[in-house]
Design goal:
- By secondary structure, the chain is an alpha+beta fold.
- The protein has 5 helices and 5 strands.
- Helices cover 61% and strands 17% of the residues.
- The strands form 2 sheets. It has a 3-stranded mixed sheet, covered by helices on one side. A two-stranded antiparallel ribbon has the order 1-3.
């Protein structure tokens, strides 16, 4: 019984660590948006009503995402059903990369992209895509460190699509590799 209890506590700790990581990404996005709004307000950046509207919309989306994560934790419920729709993956990735670009630059991390000029249509949940990409990009930024490089690519052939995110950080230790998934 003690072993089962210890295993549950260990699993709960892992869930809490994962949740903390998931909460940090939207908070980071909100922080970046508010910083951009402050710069616009102070007149250092071009005043652009569409840009301000987009930043507010993105901040609201991140707040909704945080609320869902908290609901899942409190209710021990299954994650919400995916809200799939047809999206242009190339445009979605470009928007996400633009969103984190300033953070990467201020952290001294070079962000390289290889996105096709053409549309790459897929059916998926755009909110989950953004969550995945933000997780990957923030992890890559942390791994690459100042002076590092992150490369993001998108390739589509026939019915398949591949998104690649790589960094020039040290990689995952063998011990940590056993803990993944």
């Amino acid at each position: 019984a003690e072993m089962v209890q210890l295993q549950r506590v260990t699993e709960l700790g892992q869930v809490a660590a994962g949740l903390a990581h998931e909460i940090r990404n939207p908070l980071q996005a909100i922080r970046l948006n508010l910083h951009a709004l402050a710069r616009m307000q102070n007149g250092r950046a071009k005043r652009d009503a569409d840009g301000v509207s987009m930043i507010i919309t993105e901040s609201n989306e991140e707040i909704v995402r945080l609320d869902r994560l908290i609901e899942e934790l409190l209710g021990f419920a299954k994650p919400d059903e995916a809200r799939e729709k047809n999206i242009d993956l190339s445009s979605e990735l470009d928007a996400t990369l633009s969103f984190v670009g300033q953070e990467m630059q201020s952290s001294g991390v070079e962000l390289r992209t290889q996105l096709p000029d053409r549309r790459v249509m897929v059916r998926m949940d755009p909110t989950r895509l953004r969550q995945i990409m933000l997780n990957l990009l923030m992890n890559a930024k942390e791994a690459a460190g100042e002076g590092g490089r992150i490369e993001v690519g998108l390739a589509g052939r026939d019915e398949r699509v591949e998104i690649r995110v790589s960094d020039d950080g040290p990689g995952i230790t063998d011990e940590d590799r056993r803990q993944i998934f």
